[in-house]
Amino acid sequence: MDYLRSYKNIYDQNIILMYKGELTFDLVTSMISTLEERLEELEQNRKVKKKFYNVATECIQNLYYHLDEVNADEIKISTYDANSALILIAARKRFYSLQTGNYIPSNKVDLVQRRLDDINSVAPEELRALYKKVLNEQEFSDKGTGGLGFIDIARKTGGQKLRYKFQEVSDDVSYFTFQVRLPRDIE
């Protein structure tokens, strides 16, 4: 492996945070703290800094809260770890990019896809009303989540479309990749 080339690629892509592995509460706390420090160094616009920090925190916490939904025994291929997550945060010239990846039960793919498509179909100025509607109508799960995270992310990114992909791993498990972008020219 050419480590110098790998380093150069990471450097050229201006990667702020990259992680693959199991998430613990302490690790999530550390990542969020590290991200905050890096954003202080990189971003002058306080509004952009605050919005991206909030979006990234929401995404990282979503991973942490939902990683245990897949039973490790359901993943038949031994090279996969059911509790493994992927986080990649980069600062591009015109936007911040955040990608996450995790395993989800295949029977939840339609629900998550429907939620994301519903959010993506709403005009940016209507996201606040959608947030309030879901907040008033939604029942909260035993984890305390009510499905508001994706709406909140869309609101904070100025109505940028939420990008996602599902890849089937087995009949019972899929891999969910989620990507958001936040423009760096917010006024």
* Whole-number mean pLDDT: 84
**Helix-residue proportion:** 40-55%
Structural class call reads alpha+beta
Name of the CATH class: Alpha Beta
Task: Label the CATH architecture.
Answer: 2-Layer Sandwich
Distance between the first and last residues' Cα: 43 Å
- Proportion of strand residues: 15-25%
- In N-to-C order, the SSE pattern is HEHHEEHHHEE
Instruction: Pick out the low-confidence regions.
Output: none
Overall number of strands: 5
Description of the structure:
This protein is α+β, with helices and mostly antiparallel strands and 187 residues long. It has one domain (3-183): 2-Layer Sandwich (Heat Shock Protein 90). 43% of the residues lie in helices and 24% in strands. The chain has helices spanning 3-12, 25-42, 46-66, 109-121, 127-137, 149-156; strands spanning 15-22, 84-91, 95-105, 163-168, 173-183. A 5-stranded antiparallel β-sheet has the order 1-2-3-5-4. A hairpin with a 4-residue loop joins strand 4 (163-168) and strand 5. The chain is globular and about 45 Å long.
Topology:
Layout: H1 3-12, E1 15-22, H2 25-42, H3 46-66, E2 84-91, E3 95-105, H4 109-121, H5 127-137, H6 149-156, E4 163-168, E5 173-183
Antiparallel strand pairs: 1-2, 2-3, 3-5, 4-5
Helix pairs in contact: 2-3, 3-6, 5-6
Give a quick precis of the structure.
The chain is of the alpha+beta class. It has six helices and five strands. It is globular.
